[in-house]
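Hi V.,

Quick status before I head out on leave. The structure for the redesign project is tokenized and pasted below; the design run finished overnight.
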């Protein structure tokens, strides 16, 4: 390793006994290396700072389309060869796209790390984008959209929530893209997207497992050092206007009982309040004794499932509550229970014991995700790419551990407000009703044409 080629920028713990170190190559490529020799395997992931938020209206779905295209033909690999080479090692390959990032993951025997580096460098710079492979993957994506959104009520709920909760921020459109946009993406625009975003100065390679750090850096320098940086667009500074009144969407769907998705405006993951709201989400639906789960599923038997999620986005997003009603119960009845439990938290701060239990659950989930090399690599890549520094991993953990009952009461008052929430309700179709897929009723018609976002696509 040449000290003049690589710059060591930062290092920090990445779990017990493992230290992650970030290096930078002269062309801007970032590398996070974390040696963990407990098993002869490696997780090699390439994270690109491009997701659905980096698209524009009329061209949504581009980032997700590339998640598919990147497994195709390159200048030196015929179609299907990428996957065949990985499978021969006994390893696995996959990818995911969300709002703030796209990443590609390889899980390999340690001895095959050089192959992984070669494959990833090849598709960063030599992907073949010709009409035949592009159209084949476009068909795959349009079929995926039909299955995951248009023929799936939960997918529809998710998409409509983001579409109506956001009116200006690009989180409002779905990661998979709108169908008409996917079909209209032009080949010159697809090629321009690749040249712009799939560049070393927009990427971070994360390697966790059994390897020699100096050898890894030498391999990466040999395969990536000559790739020129791209001219990246200026950082996106999108600000969502403050929501001042409740928004509600209802639509009939081919389901047996009501389904409800509620989104409360919440801060981005790097905000101090995010950790306290993560504890709130756990207190509401993180275990069988959680407040909403106990009330709705166990005591009232009004719901068959209750879930809460605080989205880990770079910019302000949502704390989401998802409920499937039991037979004989309605979404409005469930909303009344939700409002009642939130009012209790506002009026009477939770006990220290209840908060400590929720913290134990949340912290256990947090650290369990880092048990294996793939989980460590994914966490390091996410915090580096979405929040700008892999060391935010330990910052978030420390914030979770510091949350108090007073913090919980404060953030519930500040964020879980009816005037800052969006509600999407799917109701059973009347018997004999015609298909009304996609139709709905919105109490905020000026914003009914907003476009929406979805969950991570993989």
């Amino acid at each position: 390793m040449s000290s003049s080629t690589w710059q060591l920028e930062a290092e920090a713990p990445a779990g017990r006994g493992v230290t992650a170190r970030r290096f930078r190559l002269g062309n801007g490529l970032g590398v996070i290396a974390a040696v963990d020799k407990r098993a002869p395997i490696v997780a090699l992931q390439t994270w690109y700072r491009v997701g659905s938020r980096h698209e524009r209206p009329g061209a949504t779905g581009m980032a997700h389309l590339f998640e598919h295209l990147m497994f195709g033909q390159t200048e030196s690999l015929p179609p299907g060869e990428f996957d065949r080479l990985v499978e021969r090692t006994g390893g696995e390959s996959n990818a995911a796209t969300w709002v703030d990032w796209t990443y590609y993951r390889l899980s390999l025997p340690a001895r095959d790390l050089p192959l992984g580096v070669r494959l990833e460098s090849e598709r960063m710079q030599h992907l073949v984008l010709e009409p035949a492979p592009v159209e084949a993957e476009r068909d795959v994506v349009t079929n995926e959209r039909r299955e995951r959104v248009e023929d799936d009520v939960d997918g529809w709920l998710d998409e409509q929530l983001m579409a109506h909760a956001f009116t200006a921020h690009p989180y409002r459109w779905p990661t998979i893209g709108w169908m008409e946009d996917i079909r209209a993406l032009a080949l010159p625009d697809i090629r321009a997207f690749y040249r712009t975003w799939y560049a070393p100065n927009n990427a971070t390679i994360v390697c966790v497992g059994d390897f020699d750090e100096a050898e890894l850096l030498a391999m990466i320098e040999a395969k990536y050092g000559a790739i020129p940086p791209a001219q990246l667009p200026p950082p996106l500074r999108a600000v969502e206007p403050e929501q001042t009144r409740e928004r509600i969407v209802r639509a009939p769907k081919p389901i047996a009982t009501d389904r409800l998705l509620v989104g409360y405006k919440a801060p981005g993951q790097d905000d101090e309040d995010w950790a306290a709201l993560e504890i709130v989400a756990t207190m509401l639906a993180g275990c069988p004794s959680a407040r909403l789960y106990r009330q709705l599923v166990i005591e009232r038997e009004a719901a068959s499932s209750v879930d809460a999620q605080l989205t880990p986005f770079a910019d302000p997003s949502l704390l989401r509550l998802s409920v499937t009603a039991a037979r004989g119960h309605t979404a409005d009845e469930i909303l009344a229970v939700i409002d009642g439990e939130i009012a209790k938290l506002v009026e009477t701060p939770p006990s220290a014991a209840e908060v400590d239990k929720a913290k134990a659950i949340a912290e256990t989930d947090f650290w369990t995700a880092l048990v294996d090399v793939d989980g460590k690599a994914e966490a390091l890549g996410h915090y580096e790419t979405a929040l700008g520094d892999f060391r935010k991993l330990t910052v978030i953990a420390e914030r979770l551990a510091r949350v108090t009952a007073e913090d919980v009461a404060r953030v519930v008052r500040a964020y879980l407000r009816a005037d800052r929430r969006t509600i999407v309700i799917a109701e059973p179709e009347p018997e004999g009703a015609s298909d009304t897929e996609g139709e709905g009723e919105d109490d905020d018609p000026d914003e009914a044409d907003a476009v929406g976002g979805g969950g991570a696509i993989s």
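Above is the designed sequence. The CA atoms of residues 125 and 226 lie 10 Å apart.

G. will cover questions while I'm gone.

Best,
W.
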